[in-house]
Amino acid sequence: QVQVVESGGGLVQAGESLRLSCTASKLIFRSYAMGWFRQAPGQEREGVSCISSSGRSTDYVNSVKGRFTISQDNAKNTLYLQMNSLKPEDTAMYYCAAFQRSWCGSWPNYWGQGTQVTVSS
Predict the structure, then answer these.
(1) pLDDT (tens digit, 9 = 90+) per residue, 6-57?
(2) Cβ-contact 94, 37 below 8 angstroms
(3) pLDDT in tens, 89-111
(4) What is the 3-state secondary structure (H, E, C) of 91-113?
(5) Pairing relationship of beta strands 78-83 and 68-73 according to DSSP bridges
(6) Number of CB atoms found within 10 A of residue 79's CB
(7) Are strands 10-13 and 115-120 parallel, antiparallel or unpaired?
(8) pLDDT for the residue 25
(9) Which is nearest to 120 in space by CA: 94, 98, 91?
(10) How far is CA 69 from each of CA 44, 72, 107, rounded to the nearest angstrom?
(11) Between β-strands 78-83 and 18-25, what pairing exists: parallel, antiparallel or unpaired?
């Protein structure tokens, strides 16, 4: 059974950094596009970043471009989201998602349970 598990969330002050990790058991990263989503209280879930199944293409929502970096380590089946210069508006539950195709979409094959990121001003 495939499990997707996020870690690395926490409480930080504005301007600080966090690195989120996502591990997926029995999941071959090179067959899946991987993405990070987030959902703040009272708001819809939004896509934050995606990395293609080949690992060669990435994309970000405009609000995090230049601050967040997505990457993956296929040998460790681990996805990362490096978040720098965090802002209070980045506060949300962050979810890892796996898509059994070359790029992310709206409906992943697998979701993680989420990791909370809270940024204080």
Answers:
(1) 999 999 999 999 999 999 877 777 789 999 999 999 999 999 999 999 999 9
(2) yes
(3) 999 999 999 999 999 998 999 99
(4) CEEEEEEEECCCCCCCCCCEECC
(5) antiparallel
(6) 29
(7) parallel
(8) 76
(9) 91
(10) 22, 10, 22
(11) antiparallel
pLDDT at 29: 73
Tokens of 81: 């989201």
Query: Tokens representing 44?
Result: 């819809």
**In this structure, are residues 65 and 49 in contact, taking their beta carbons and an 8 Å threshold?**
no
CA 64 to chain centre: 12
Q: Is 82 helix (H, G, I), strand (E, B) or coil?
A: strand
Six-digit token pair at 42?
């009272």
| Dihedral angle computed from the Cα positions of residues 98, 50, 6 and 100, in that order, rounded to the nearest 10 degrees | 10
pLDDT at 2: 78
